[in-house]
Amino acid sequence: MSNNAAPTRSVLNAINGGLIVLDRTGRVVLWNVWMQNTSGISEETACGKRLAEIFPDADLQRLSAAITGALDCGTSAIITHALRPALLPLHTRSRQPLVHDVAVSPIETATAPEGCVISITDVTAATRRVRYLRDQQDARYDAVVASAPDIIITVDENGLVQFANPAAHARFGDPGTRLVGTDAALLFETGDEWASLWRGAIDGTGTDRPNTLIAARTAGELRYFEASASRWKSGARLFATVILRDITERRAMIAALRRSESEARNAAQALTELNRTLEERVQSRTAQLIKAEAALRHSQKMEAIGNLTGSIAHDFNNLLHVISGNLHLLKRYVSGNAAAERRVQIALDGVARSAKLSSQLLAFARRQPLSPKVINLGRFIRDMEDIIRRAVGEGVAVNTVIGAELWNTLVDPGNVENALLNMAINARDAMEGQGRLTIEAANVLLDSDYAAAHEGVTSGEYVMVSVRDTGSGMSSEVIDQAFEPFFTTKPEGRGTGLGLSMVYGFVRQSGGHIHIESEVGRGSTIRFYLPRSKQAEDDLTEADEAPVTGGSEVILVAEDDEHVRETVVAMLSDLGYRILKAKDAQGALSIVESGMPIDLLFTDVIMPGSMKSTELARKARERMPNLAVLFTSGYTEDTFAGSGLGESIELLSKPYSREALARKLRHMLANAAQRSSQMLTSSYSPSLRQPSVSLKPIRILVCEDNLDIRNTTVDMLSVMGHHIMSASDARTALSILTSNPVDILLTDVGLPDMPGTALANHAKSRFPTLDVIFATGEASGTDTTALGTARTLIKPFTFDQLAAAIGSAPGRERR
């Protein structure tokens, strides 16, 4: 290289950048001060060496290629920091890496390049400014993307997610680290539309028209998105950025608007049609309202009559029971007096007729006690054919038509028999003893239309029984009143008017429906429908009546009517039973909880107070599992529904005879004893145990001012077999002690006229051998030291505690 071509030293050092001159062999011949300062290598050290020798650890592959091109081919090259961030290991004054660009140019001569010049430009500050501006721009971009309500995702050439903004994570439910790298096609149900969108963007074949995509369901939710995509390039790779806007609500709103428009059009058409037929519709609706009002009035009238007759029959049955029970008791006392026996029997026959009348009233009111069985009405009707033929007479031809495979139904057989006989006799009278009677049974399905057209009917499967005659028929006015009690078209003395009302009430109480079709002069058809039962048919064979016997068991009688209670107690006592009595359910439960041995609870169904008889029975059985429970009532009125007593309910309808009561009690007590004997692994039942101490009968005076406690205590002692006297105050007790021998005085501590201790002191001073037991609700505070052998019984006390206190009295002998 000639000396004229070489720059002067001053020029080299004045350049604000690096300058290196290489000869034809690639060795350094010039190295300015800027290079010396940024590399830390002096010119003396650098001259004569190749760059690879000066920077042995640097990657000079791209720079070496540019130098070769300049020396061999005379080409120039520029290498920027963007393509290779660290070309040479240069540093700033603060020893930070220096960002620089490199330019390589040949030193040309007429024949071939003699060497090349490498110029180095410091771009550190400029790069920092660009990077700062870019970071600011990226931050603003990231903020916009992060806060965007639309979903933004970027996918690569394979459709894999490379970026997803927070809205995308929120919609598709995955953390960001899991969503990136996912095949985006899995996020959509419309896979073909998605593929067309992003591939079209990358290939440049897509359109500017937004696509509609459906996201994969999340918890069954269907979401619609309006999607657009754009392509961008990074190096050699292509990417597609997709923006998804949720349009689900917008679609729903548009659909709703369209529906509203359609509904508005339909409404306008309907209004036009309505106006056209308004008068006709008004007349039809008016007729329907008149019919509905008539049906409602008839239903309300029947309900009101039912409530009235039911209440009257209930009270009437209680009165009849008092009369009947006392007549049965009186009958035993007049045995042998023929005239008196006849009078009593006439009265009993009157009671029976009255009871039948009351039963018919209860049937209409749907409050009669029923004993439903699963029966097949086809077989039942065939078994009754002879009875019906005799009832209607030879002039009436009886024909029965029984459908094939007739369903079973749950119904009271006795009431079915009474209903068929009543309707047959009514048909005979309507035909004046001459005509044709057809009884039909068939399976029917009452649909919702039929149920809507008839009051109180539930759609479903029924067994239909129809009784059709060829008689005089009925007018519509007669049909409207046919089911009312005491309504009859028969001459006076030929009917009570209770036959059809009884059938009506029985069918409705059984969950069924009854209907009359008739025209004057063309006969009548009465159809009743009873719900189908899918249970097996019950055996209706009845056992022979058991003999009338009594017993010695303990029976608890719960009855609120005083006269009925006294009559029942008298009948049971006459049968030999030991009796405990209560006027309401709460009082009866107190006796049960006292621990007294009880074999059977005999309770009225309708009881006063907050506790029902069914609740009393349930709680009593919780304490005494083997306790027999017998209910009695004039009517039931769904009392047992939801009682929790299962199928163990036994009912004796009022009024009942002494014989019926005796047989029922022996049957139930025998069953209870059998159940008790079968409990081999359990302890003995509290209701059947006997007191732990058994004594000879003694004379006990109970002094207690509380009537319920006094009666309960007297009953408990009576069950033990003792002779009991009672007083409500100390004055009466002293009077009894003066005139009657008494072994034990059982007295309350708090009496109305003097303390129980004072009463005991007076009594002991006059009768030194008298034993004293104090009954008190306080465990302490009663001073009995002055009475020596006096004992204290803490209230409430149990049967065993009372028996033990009586048994521990001095001088008492065990049996």
Considering the chains and any ligands shown, give keywords for the structure:
single chain; 815 residues; alpha/beta; seven-stranded mixed beta sheet
- Give the helix tally: 24
Uncertain regions: pLDDT < 50 for 5+ in a row? 679-694
Molecular shape: elongated
Q: Strand share of the residues?
A: 15-25%
| Helix amount | 40-55%
Give the N-to-C terminal Cα separation: 152 Å
Overall pLDDT score: 78
What class, by secondary structure content? alpha/beta
Beta strands, count: 27
Please describe the biggest sheet, giving its number of strands, its sense, and whether it closes into a barrel: 7 strands, mixed
- Radius of gyration, taken over Cα atoms and rounded to an integer in Å: 55 Å
Provide an overview of this structure.
- By secondary structure, the chain is α/β, with parallel strands linked by helices.
- It is 43% helix and 20% strand.
- It has 24 helices and 27 strands.
- Strands 11, 12, 13, 14, 15, 16 and 17 form a seven-stranded mixed β-sheet that branches. A five-stranded antiparallel β-sheet has the order 2-1-5-4-3. Strands 7-6-10-9-8 form a five-stranded antiparallel β-sheet.
What is the secondary structure topology, with strand pairs?
Elements: H1 9-14, E1 18-22, E2 28-31, H2 33-39, H3 43-46, H4 51-54, H5 61-73, E3 77-79, E4 100-107, E5 115-122, H6 124-147, E6 151-155, E7 161-164, H7 166-172, H8 176-179, H9 191-203, E8 211-214, E9 224-234, E10 237-246, H10 248-333, H11 338-364, E11 373-375, H12 377-392, E12 396-402, E13 408-411, H13 413-430, E14 435-446, H14 448-453, E15 460-468, H15 476-481, H16 499-509, E16 513-518, E17 524-533, E18 554-558, H17 562-574, E19 578-582, H18 585-593, E20 600-604, H19 613-623, E21 628-633, E22 651-653, H20 658-678, E23 699-703, H21 707-719, E24 723-727, H22 730-739, E25 744-748, H23 756-766, E26 771-776, E27 791-794, H24 799-807
Parallel strand pairs: 12-14, 18-19, 18-20, 20-21, 21-22, 23-24, 23-25, 25-26, 26-27
Antiparallel strand pairs: 1-2, 1-5, 3-4, 4-5, 6-7, 6-10, 8-9, 9-10, 11-13, 13-17, 14-15, 15-17, 16-17
